[in-house]
Amino acid sequence: MSEAARSQPSSVTNRDADADVIVLGVGTAGEDVSLQLLDAGLDVIGIEENLIGGECPYWACLPSKLMVRTAKAVREARWVGDVAADAEVTPDWDRVADKVRWLTGGWDDSGARERYRNRGGTPIKAHGRLTGPRTVAAGDETYTARRGIVIATGSKPFIPPIPGLDEVDYWTTHDVIAMEEVPESMIIIGGGSSGCELGQVAAQFGAHVTIVEAGDHLLPREEPEASELVEAAFTDDGIDVHTGARAERVVARDGSIVVNLAGGKEVTGEYVVVATGRTVDLSDLGLESAGIDAGGPFMAVDEHMRAADGIWAIGDVTGKGLLSLLALYQSKIAVADILGEEHEPARYDAIPRVTFTEPEVGSVGMTEAEARAAGRDVVVAVKQLPATFAGMVHWLERGILKVVVDRQSGLLLGATVAAQQAGNMLGLLNLAVHAQVPLAKLQTMMYGFPALYSGLGEGLGGYNPAGVISVMDPEYEGLEALNKIG
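Now predict its structure.
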């Protein structure tokens, strides 16, 4: 046990307690916090009724991105056939399904449970709920913690109350991840990240895909300019996109599923996939027994991830964002607080997110609408990335850089890249928002030329716009506004 762990005071004097810490929910965040605490020498009980590791390794981040990568490989092979060589591409979903089964271990977490035990933890497969500030009931047993409890119970798919939906055999994203063959057609209700990623994958492997989104554009959390690029790419891929279209009823008809949309339209497919986001359920965690309000949509936590004395919460349940990267960030903070170690308090102004469609959409910080709603005086610039030297070299059909900059401080409040490999290009902008690097400092950088990210340098003003850069994009007026900041 570390010295910090040994010296951490505890209000619990019962040395007969079952563990130092009980982790309720051993998904990505719960497993991470458990392993950190075990490494520090603490006794840990982890209670999880589903798969240890949670959504990310089995149903979301990892298998979905593997599927995305295979779809992009198909796309790249077809692109080679257009520009560089004779090529004939025949997609084979069997190979993809094999890779997904390998990556997820066939949705078997026995290896993860064994790993947990080998690190010194005690995994318990059961639903757990608090019965007091330091006690958790799981199955027929009740367990007591000396130091406290970490709640990391995650979220679950949100199923909207669409009339008729419960009368058909609808899919969730889990079913798409596990599918053994690609259907001839599918309707995806929800045009967020998961619906768009998986829809484009299915389309690359031969399905006729229809996406229904109630908001004004796909990826409703993102900048509208980025969403427009994705919608244009989907049209090129043969995907039918219906935005501003609320699903009002689902019916089975003649061996197909029909979704009636507001306004009288209807769309038909072999399967309907519900991809309308996720929701947190606090109703059966026994929070009231520890004096915690369970009436809201999320658990309130402070900057140290404390929800109450001796109780920490991390991940989706905190409502700070439904992202594994955020849950792992919070995990590190919670562990430091449990061990009594110094740590930076949590902050959420530079949360990155990436949608791995083609083009990808990577963003960090505030959108223009969010910044203006917060009363910020901002300068906004949008650079067309095909009109850069990198865009020309890499054959970018479409792509943008959009930056939202505080007029007085010159700091980036937010940025979006929509382009090929936008997720990798986002790194520079993520650092700039997180570390509060002034735009003027970014303009003094040299950018590796002509790597894709060098297009960001052209958009931000890393080169004199009156020089050779103007050859590629003489109509770009964003730099004039950016150069007046400060």
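The chain is about 30% helix and 25% strand.
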